[in-house]
């Protein structure tokens, strides 16, 4: 119940703290025969890596992944894939002070309440570094989805008050903020500069879509595809809201506006609009899956804050160390990873839904 | 993987279709010794019952619950509690027509894609009646929480463009829309009347809080308390977005605004504000848990719609039958139930977090 | 964790006590499109029904099953199948006395220790009646297996010192002891008569095989097919040992005797012998699956016994009521049901093992 | 569903192949505050290590464990503990030949059937080396149990036809066969010498007990404590039968012999005998838990065997490489580990059984 395992069939277990020896993940339930290399996974990790821009913590980590098991002659064997990422830049000294007090907006207080004490070095398990294992596993999920013609793509939709107004997919990897709109990226950079000058931080929104998802994924009651996505994305630290399709705006819409009419096109059933974000009754409908994650501003700000210490005294603090003024750009690949993991699991889970297809499967 | 089970320790399995013989739920993992009666559960079901106002389907269902097992001499025994709710008002004739086509905004198309065919009577398992089992189970969870001093309370926050501007808890059960603001309820009723005249429907927002939740519930990675709540609430049909605490607005906030300072009060650690909605790092912090669910407008509208039939032809339809112009008021108790179920599960799950407390537990 | 759910994909949740209103089971994860009727399930329940012979409790229960959900127009819909079996012959008066003391060999003491009190009527949830739900669910699993060419067959291998020496499948249903050897059945009946005269009871062995199981089911580490079978069969009350293939005798064998040589026959790989019971490395090898369950003598004997009461006094008791002098014959269909459930689950679980087959599945 | 995770609350995920870079395990759900060191775990691994005697494979492996996460300042933090054991002596060359054929009694054929191909080096994931992760995790479970006054002890009960006739606990670690009877150990050594001369191998029995287990662990239906133990122990490669208490002999016993009378002793309820092996109705009764695992002879024998190759031809083979003539002594600590893991999980799972104790727990 300690909750470091995610997924039912395509299933990952992450481990590791910010300042431990290493972080990692065991990916279980990956079908046999999938080509996977360290380079494939590294490409995803590099997108999450700190130190990529002036808006990201200057901590330098190579985040170099090692495959320790489950791959033989370049292909998955159906046995668990153990991925390990050594920690190389642990400057624990920076953190010794925070052992004694509770940083606002952080998990310091709640960890102490739950466990009686905490690994205070860099936030321990509650650090953003925890997501390295998710991204490594998400890379494997993405390789699997790719073989089935499914593509997942995430990007920054907004930073503070600055929203993207156009979508150019190539642009996403051109700017340090992962925005698909170069002009918005410029404005967002200016906004972040101002935040940094004020020793403050900014939130933002990550949007993610998946194309090529077949109709039929997800289950109609508790394991709705949107429920699984919401739980997965909300489990990323700092996410405070999740929207599917039109999301929050449905509450102000009328049925006649919100319903997506069906129509035939080229012999296939399609929807004219996609307010639903590709999911009806918890099951994928064959159109684009669309979701958004709202991410809070980095709680580690350098301006003065009120808080209490472990001795129960009111104190005033100034946080030191290395912190991102915004975590949104680094969260992009994490949202993409979690989405890929949910879809991989749903694909496998769906295979037992119909007797006729099971019989065909075993007739071989 | 068919997903009709929810929870890990406090665990429910629901079953039943809109027009089958009955609906029900098996509640497993309820601690022994909890007083539970049919009347206790009925009180929750009555809040969900159709036909309560002119804004709810005129279908009449007593929704009378029977306890079939797991309770002996008025108390739970630790064995599974089977709750059964007979269906009494199945007018399947109304639905025979919809067997042949796909209603926009409904799960008709996706069920056919997943399973090859569907129980089309009243939406079958995808009907809102599916939530009766959730509410019955949520009643048991609420009785359990009550014994631990935890209280969950949900209400309508907005209907279409009409938002509550004040909070009077007593008012929630005074108006058919379950709004804690009598004046907003009047305006919302007027808005709904207009929707009905236009043969249209409305969405809205349900807000829910929980008081008395001890610090320490939830787990720091995939099983964050907010992740569990988000998955639980998004699994309710028609919910398209979930917010925790300040929710979507955090993405536009700065860290200095969004962080909740800690302070001492009467020897206890408290937060001055609660932007976080009572959860830090996925773990409850002892303050009020707060969430919001955005609910889409009822897809069954009486105006003309475009769609396709099972033969792959474009057609125009007008939906008949009995449908709520807004489902928000009836969803209130469902959101409350899912929240109670998540908290009950988290309470039990948390008991194994610390060696010192386990030793004390078994020292008895 | 209360453990009334079994299986991962093909998944059942049972409920009900010996003297409650009813017993039942929710069968989730059954593929859509499987023809299932009440009569199909009743045929299995009738094999477990009490009162079938003089070696079985005279309690009369019709054990008439009702399908409450999940079947539409005679076929499963992919949604949960709720099966209910009313209790009709609860003579609780018989049991009031046992509320005060702990019957040797029963769960009275351990229930009180775990839950603080117990539903003492007929053993409550620890009664053999609990297996009615397993058998009803096992019937559905068997119908599913049948569509895939898999047949499960269980029978009494021995009663006390009397062992079957030949195997005639037709004979199994010809004698009240479910033995495939008519002569052994006669000798066993005589042995049981003698037990009953002595106010004593007898144990025995149930054997079960499955034919037509494809190679590849089961997973290599914790979810070995034999581990799943052992857990499933040991979860039947009164089972104290489980053997796979040659079972206990392997511990005295040499490798040269115990290994099953492979050979080609008609273009297929076969084994010359089957000491392994159809499972190698936890995975089915395509030959017959074979297991045995060792069942203890009924603990409810009518002779005088020593025990203690709830007040902590040593006492002497004589158990009254209705009890089987041997439970082995009624356990036969329960072992068959649990085996069928494990195989159904393993079949569905195995579908995601290979990328090539998944791609083929979704190419449709 | 790939089944490399075991346990529900105290939960382990193992990974690694015989000839990969390393093996390991992630132990999740360990309560915070438990002192754990590499030396503590190493002591368990050393008992499993190959090369300890002439009856064990001469492969040399240090099996030196590293703690990579989850332990801070010598104590568990409540976050996942990642344990890694590098492989140092992979002589894959020995195994290249077996890529082309199926060794009798091994998982070669079934892996190929399930996954389409296999990591043939040393048996890959089906190697006995897979158990290293179990033992490392079992060490952590044992440390936890120790804090609660529970002690688990396993030993060799028999090798081939040679049975222990006395029990001297100190003797277990004095002889290479882990037998608690020095004279039986001598006879067993002689028997094994003879097996080795004949290029053959031997099976045997491991017995395991647990003292200090409180009454109340285990759940009454599918998650009976004995069912969990049977599944756990049967999941160890080469185990073909599991017995609880009197095990297989109950099938020949009468009720009057098999029932354990209760009696008062020093104000506590006790049983006069323990045929039940410490479990009644699936729940621990406070007396000694006792089980036995029957282990087949090592399938890798050096004498000539018949089999088939991947091209579907009948062939004759002689297995080369490094193999134990008996695996029983090395399986002893594996059985102990699995038993400890089941008990640790049952202890945590049981904490939510009673409302009165939950209220007391949270009253703090």
Automatic annotation (TrEMBL), chains A, B, C, D:
<dbReference type="InterPro" id="IPR000453">
    <property type="entry name" value="Chorismate_synth"/>
</dbReference>
<keyword id="KW-0057">Aromatic amino acid biosynthesis</keyword>
<keyword id="KW-0285">Flavoprotein</keyword>
<keyword id="KW-0456">Lyase</keyword>
<dbReference type="GO" id="GO:0005829">
    <property type="term" value="C:cytosol"/>
</dbReference>
<feature type="binding site">
    <location>
        <position position="48"/>
    </location>
    <ligand>
        <name>NADP(+)</name>
    </ligand>
</feature>
<protein>
    <recommendedName>
        <fullName>Chorismate synthase</fullName>
        <ecNumber>4.2.3.5</ecNumber>
    </recommendedName>
</protein>
<keyword id="KW-0521">NADP</keyword>
<keyword id="KW-0288">FMN</keyword>
<comment type="subunit">
    <text>Homotetramer.</text>
</comment>
<comment type="pathway">
    <text>Metabolic intermediate biosynthesis; chorismate biosynthesis; chorismate from D-erythrose 4-phosphate and phosphoenolpyruvate: step 7/7.</text>
</comment>
<keyword id="KW-0028">Amino-acid biosynthesis</keyword>
<dbReference type="GO" id="GO:0004107">
    <property type="term" value="F:chorismate synthase activity"/>
</dbReference>
<feature type="binding site">
    <location>
        <begin position="125"/>
        <end position="127"/>
    </location>
    <ligand>
        <name>FMN</name>
    </ligand>
</feature>
<dbReference type="InterPro" id="IPR035904">
    <property type="entry name" value="Chorismate_synth_AroC_sf"/>
</dbReference>
<dbReference type="GO" id="GO:0010181">
    <property type="term" value="F:FMN binding"/>
</dbReference>
<comment type="function">
    <text>This reaction introduces a second double bond into the aromatic ring system.</text>
</comment>
<feature type="binding site">
    <location>
        <begin position="296"/>
        <end position="300"/>
    </location>
    <ligand>
        <name>FMN</name>
    </ligand>
</feature>
<keyword id="KW-0274">FAD</keyword>
<dbReference type="InterPro" id="IPR020541">
    <property type="entry name" value="Chorismate_synthase_CS"/>
</dbReference>
<dbReference type="GO" id="GO:0009423">
    <property type="term" value="P:chorismate biosynthetic process"/>
</dbReference>
<dbReference type="GO" id="GO:0008652">
    <property type="term" value="P:amino acid biosynthetic process"/>
</dbReference>
<feature type="binding site">
    <location>
        <position position="54"/>
    </location>
    <ligand>
        <name>NADP(+)</name>
    </ligand>
</feature>
<feature type="binding site">
    <location>
        <position position="281"/>
    </location>
    <ligand>
        <name>FMN</name>
    </ligand>
</feature>
<comment type="similarity">
    <text>Belongs to the chorismate synthase family.</text>
</comment>
<feature type="binding site">
    <location>
        <position position="322"/>
    </location>
    <ligand>
        <name>FMN</name>
    </ligand>
</feature>
<dbReference type="GO" id="GO:0009073">
    <property type="term" value="P:aromatic amino acid family biosynthetic process"/>
</dbReference>
<dbReference type="Pfam" id="PF01264">
    <property type="entry name" value="Chorismate_synt"/>
</dbReference>
């Amino acid at each position: 119940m300690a909750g470091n395992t995610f997924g039912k069939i395509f299933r990952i277990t992450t481990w590791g703290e910010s300042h431990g020896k290493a972080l990692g993940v065991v990916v279980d339930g990956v079908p046999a025969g999938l080509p996977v290399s360290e380079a494939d996974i590294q490409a995803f990790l590099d997108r999450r890596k700190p130190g990529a821009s002036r808006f990201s913590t200057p901590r330098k980590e190579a985040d170099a992944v090692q495959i320790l098991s489950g791959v033989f002659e370049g292909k998955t064997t159906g046995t668990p894939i153990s991925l390990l990422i050594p920690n190389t830049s642990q400057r624990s000294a920076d953190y010794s002070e925070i052992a004694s007090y509770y940083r606002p907006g952080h998990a310091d207080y709640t960890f102490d309440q739950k466990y009686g004490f905490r690994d205070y070095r860099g936030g321990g398990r509650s650090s953003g570094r925890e997501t390295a294992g998710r991204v490594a596993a998400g890379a494997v999920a993405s390789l699997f989805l790719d073989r089935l013609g499914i593509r997942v793509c995430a990007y920054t939709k907004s930073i503070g008050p600055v929203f993207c107004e156009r979508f150019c997919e190539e642009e996403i990897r051109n700017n340090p903020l992962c925005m698909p709109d170069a002009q918005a990226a410029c404005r967002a950079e200016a906004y972040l500069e101002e935040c940094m000058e004020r020793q403050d931080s900014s939130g933002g929104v990550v949007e993610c879509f998946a194309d090529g998802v077949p109709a039929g994924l997800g289950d109609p009651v508790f394991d709705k595809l949107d429920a699984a996505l919401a739980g997965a994305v909300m489990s990323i630290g700092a996410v405070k809201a999740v929207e599917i399709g039109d999301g929050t705006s449905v509450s102000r819409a009328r049925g006649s506006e919100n319903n997506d009419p069906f129509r035939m096109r080229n012999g296939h059933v399609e929807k004219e609009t996609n307010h639903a974000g590709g999911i009806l009754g918890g099951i994928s409908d064959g159109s684009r899956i669309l979701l958004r994650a709202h991410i809070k501003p980095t709680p580690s700000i350098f301006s003065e804050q009120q808080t209490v210490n472990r001795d129960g005294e009111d104190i005033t603090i100034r946080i030191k160390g290395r912190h991102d003024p915004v975590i949104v750009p680094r969260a992009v690949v994490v949202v993409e990873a979690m989405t890929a993991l949910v879809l991989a699991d749903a694909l496998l889970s769906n295979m037992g839904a119909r007797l006729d297809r099971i019989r065909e499967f075993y007739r071989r």
